[in-house]
Specification:
Layout (H helix, E strand, L loop, with lengths): L13 E2 L5 E2 L1 E7 L25 H13 L4 E6 L8 H9 L6 E6 L4 H11 L3 E5 L5 H8 L4 H13 L3 E8 L5 H13 L3 E6 L7 H7 L3 H10 L3 E2 L10 E4 L6 E5 L12 E4 L4 E3 L7 E3 L10 H11 L20 H4 L2
Parallel strand pairs: 3-4, 3-12, 4-5, 5-6, 6-7, 7-8, 8-11
Antiparallel strand pairs: 1-2, 9-10, 10-11, 12-13, 13-14
Helix pairs in contact: 1-2, 1-9, 2-3, 3-5
Bound molecules: S-adenosylmethionine.
Length: 335
């Protein structure tokens, strides 16, 4: 069971024009990253893609306003969120906000072995760790680092600290039966979910996308042949489709951004590290919130700005027709 922060949910709700209830904030806390994933930042991180990151006080005000609009789930992302020296304090501030029940983090895991316990004590409930390969050489070719052992040690530290762990693996050519087998073997004894994520096209990765994309349907067919069966969806689930197997403690999941209906269950808003509201990861709209995050007096105006902005949230992204909006890479807005 996923641990919660234990606070009481707020009563007010935020809905978009299509009747979707929005209650999940994906918050980028830095646009910096120290990995060089081939599909994201193969040349490394350009300096200050998005501008100066929000301070802890600004993040506190943002989260309080969203909790007042019924948001109960927050996930920190980046860039690499653990590059922020105060990441544990940011988690603590958010987890202590009345109405917030779950605080998660998406990370490449390079600092996790050191800070997992502190993150848990600060109130972190879930963690998604990106591990694109369990073969050290392939991991190096994809991420540009030789830190696989350290990342795996971080996952073990998170599990033993009582944090629910999901592993994210982006699907690229080279995810062969041996690689799939390694990921699935991991779930046999460990209660973690390994989620296979279809590569999404961004402004910068078009050539790789055309050459190296692996459709999630190939993994789905293999899972089904191996006796994995689709699990019922939990309320508040995002777009992942989860599979279980009687011989495995953990689960497998598929995130297929290119399949029809992917956005129907969208329940989230995104805020960039510089405080711009994004209604859709691949949308054009950016609504600046930072001017209203400078003092506590801005909270009512902030809630009004968010409420009026969500009326323009699009029904779905347009990736299937090759339109990925202004997103050059996902580190820039927070994947
Ligand atoms: N640095 C953190 C990490 O590695 O998890 C958080 C940011 S990263 C942008 C978040 C997630 O987005 C990672 O799982 C990464 O693999 C995934 N990602 C980045 N670019 C992607 C793309 N073009 N298609 C699919 N997933 C992508």
């Amino acid at each position: 069971m996923t641990p919660t922060c234990g606070a009481v949910p707020a009563g007010r709700k935020l809905r978009d024009a299509f009747g979707r209830e929005l209650h999940y904030l994906r918050l980028s806390v830095t646009d910096r990253c120290n990995f060089r994933c081939v599909y994201c930042l193969p040349q490394g991180c350009p300096s200050h893609q998005a501008g100066t990151p929000l301070s802890r006080a600004e993040i506190g005000r943002l989260v309080r306003a969203l909790a007042g609009l019924g948001f109960w789930k927050v996930r920190l992302t980046g860039g690499e969120p653990t590059l922020r020296a105060d990441v544990c304090e940011v988690v603590r501030e958010i987890a202590a906000t009345p109405g917030i029940r779950r605080v998660g983090l998406t990370t490449n895991g390079y600092r996790l072995a050191t800070i997992a316990r502190e993150l848990r004590e600060a109130g972190l409930t879930t963690i998604n760790v990106s591990v694109d390969s369990l073969d050290p050489e392939r991991f190096y070719r994809i991420t540009g680092t030789r830190l696989l052992d350290r990342v795996v040690a971080g996952i073990e530290a998170a599990l033993s600290a009582g944090i629910a762990v999901k592993v994210n693996a982006v699907l690229l050519q080279g995810m062969d039966d041996a690689e799939l087998g390694r990921f699935l073997a991991w779930t046999r004894t460990e209660p973690l979910t390994v989620r296979f994520i279809e590569l999404m096209e961004t402004g910068d990765n078009g050539a790789l996308f055309r050459q190296a994309r692996l459709p999630a349907s190939e993994i789905r067919d293999k899972l089904e042949r191996l006796g994995w069966t689709r699990l019922p969806r939990d309320a508040g689930d995002g777009p992942a489709v989860n599979y279980g197997h009687p011989a495995h403690a953990g689960k497998a999941g598929l995130i297929s951004a290119y399949s029809g209906g992917f956005c129907d269950s969208c329940n989230r808003l995104r805020v960039t590290s510089a405080g711009d509201l994004k209604l859709c990861l691949f949308g054009n709209q950016m609504v600046p919130l930072r001017p209203l995050l400078q003092t506590d007096a801005g909270e009512a105006a902030l809630m009004d700005r968010i409420e009026s902005a969500v009326t323009a949230k699009p029904r779905a992204h347009e990736l299937a027709v090759g339109r990925c909006g202004p997103t050059a890479n996902l580190a820039m807005t927070g994947g």
